[in-house]
């Protein structure tokens, strides 16, 4: 299981732990998706993924099907940087779906942290990586 953030910690203190642990917790954890989300993100969190704005409710709605469809998720962090209230990372996320399809995505993420260490905004650019099953 991934690294859980506790009081006094935050995404900025363990960016690699967040990047690798959060997808595991969301997809395979016992907690409600909203509870996992709220541990790492402020209520007014915004993500801009390839220019498309997603808020908390939209992201949580996206997680529900992921919990049903994914059989495994792996994150390979290539670079991670934290400075002040900013984080940045490049990583590859690979998900294996129930029907056997593998989806691999390169992600370049730039984020802003809230005062409590949770993410308040993320801008990211993604690229699907062709796999043998595609």
From TrEMBL:
Q: Which InterPro entries match?
A: NTF2-like_dom_sf (IPR032710), SnoaL-like (IPR037401)
Q: Which domain of life is it from?
A: Bacteria
Cite the SnoaL-like domain residue spans from the record. 47-121
Q: Which Pfam families match?
A: SnoaL_2
- Protein name (Swiss-Prot/TrEMBL): SnoaL-like domain-containing protein
Record the organism. Answer: Acrocarpospora macrocephala
Q: What is the lineage of its organism?
A: Bacteria, Bacillati, Actinomycetota, Actinomycetes, Streptosporangiales
């Amino acid at each position: 299981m991934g690294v859980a953030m506790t009081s006094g910690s935050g995404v900025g203190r363990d960016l690699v732990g967040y990047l690798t642990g959060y997808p595991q917790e969301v997809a395979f954890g016992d907690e409600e998706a909203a509870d996992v989300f709220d541990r790492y993100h402020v209520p007014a969190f915004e993500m801009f993924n390839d220019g498309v704005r997603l808020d908390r409710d939209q992201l949580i709605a996206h997680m529900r099907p992921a919990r049903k469809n994914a059989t495994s998720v792996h994150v390979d962090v290539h670079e991670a940087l934290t400075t002040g209230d900013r984080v940045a990372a490049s990583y590859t996320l690979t998900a294996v779906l129930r029907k056997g399809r593998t989806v691999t995505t390169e992600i370049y993420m730039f984020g802003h942290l809230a005062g409590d260490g949770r993410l308040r905004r993320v801008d990211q650019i993604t690229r699907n990586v062709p796999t043998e099953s595609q």
